[in-house]
Amino acid sequence: MGKGLLGRKVGMTQIYDQAGNVVPVTVIQAGPCHVLQLRTAARDGYEAVQLGFLDKPRRIARRSERGHVARLASKRARKLVSAGVELLPRADCEPQRFVRELRGSTEGYTVGQQLRVDLLAEVQAVDVTGTSKGRGYAGVMRRHNFSGQRASHGVKKVHRHPGGTGCSAFPSRTFKGTRMAGQYGHVRVTARNLKVVRVDAAHDVLLVRGAVPGPAGGYVIIRESNKLG
Questions:
Q1: What is the DSSP letter of 159?
Q2: Are 184 and 141 in contact (CB under 8 A)?
Q3: Structure confidence at residue 222 as a pLDDT band (50, 70, 90)
Q4: Sign of the alpha-carbon torsion through 18, 22, 24, 26
Q5: Under 8 Å CB-to-CB from 130, ≥6 apart: which residues?
Q6: Listing from the earlier edge strand, what are the strands of the sheet with 48-55?
Q7: CATH entry, 4-134+190-224, from 2.40.280.10, 1.10.10.10, 3.30.160.810, 1.10.3080.10
Q8: Is-cis flag, bond preceding 32, omega within 30?
Q9: pLDDT tens track for 148-206
C-alpha cells in the first residue's frame, strides 16, 4: 500500500510562505489511525490495509463493531477454536467511527499498529477523497451551468428550462447521459495532486494547498499521489 491515512476536514485558512506569499490551505486532522485488518490474496483475493479513524464510544457501538476490534467471548468463537480454526488477530482498540480499506501491499504493516500524520512527512503531494456537499435537486442552470433561454421574443416562462432534449424520427430517443436536472452533489470526489504545505505531528494536522471535497467535519481519505508534475 502506498502511504495513506484517514482523517477529517477541519476547514480552510491561509498562511504565508517564506517569500511572503499568501497560500490558501485546507486543514485536515489526519490520524491517528489503527490498522484493523490486513487483507491477503490467499484469504481474500486481494491485498489491502484496513484502517480505522476516530474512537467511537462503546455505549453506542454495536456488538459487531466491538467484536471487530477486540475479541469477545461468544459461542461461535469457542466452536471455531475447538475445531482448530485460527481466529484473525484483533487490533485491541476502541470501536472506530470511520473504517476504510486502502488497496496495495501489506508489507510493513501489522494489526494493531497506529499510524500518525508523520507518515506523510516526506510526501510532496497527496490525493484527497471525500463526499462533496449535497445541494439537493437542482435545475440545469445550477447543476450544469447552462445559460438558459432568451428573456424575450417568444420565450414564455421557460427561461431556466434546458430546451429540447430528444431526437427526431431517428434515433427517436434521448441519449443516455444527457445533462438534465437532478441530484446535485453528495458524490464521491477525489482532489488530485494537492501539494503538502505543512505537517504538524504534535497535533496530527496536515495542511494541503487548495480545496478538499466535502463540508467541514467531513471524513476524507488521504493517499500519496501517483500523479507526476
A1: T
A2: no
A3: very high
A4: positive
A5: 9, 188, 189, 191, 212, 213, 214, 218, 219, 220, 221
A6: 96-103, 48-55, 33-39, 114-115
A7: 3.30.160.810
A8: yes
A9: 998 887 888 899 999 888 888 888 888 999 999 999 999 999 999 999 999 998 999 99
Burial class of residue 118 (count of CB atoms within 10 Å of its CB; 0-12, 13-18, 19+): middle
Q: Which three cell numbers stand for residue 124?
A: 510532496
Asked whether the beta carbons of 187 and 180 are under 8 A apart, the reply is no
Tell me the C-alpha distance between 57 and 86, whole Å.
29
Rounded to an integer, what distance in angstroms lies between the CA atom of residue 37 and that of residue 52?
A: 9
The candidate with the shortest Cα–Cα distance to 176, out of 189, 165, 163, 192, is: 165
- pLDDT score at 179: 94
Domain boundaries, the chain: 4-134+190-224, 135-184
Please report the DSSP string for 1-43 in residue order.
--SEEEEEEEEEEEEE-TTS-EEEEEEEEE--EEEEEEE-HHH
What does the pLDDT read at residue 46?
92
**For 68-88, how does the pLDDT look when each residue is reduced to its tens digit (9 = 90+)?**
888 887 777 778 777 877 777
Dihedrals phi, psi of 219, to nearest 5 degrees: -75, 145
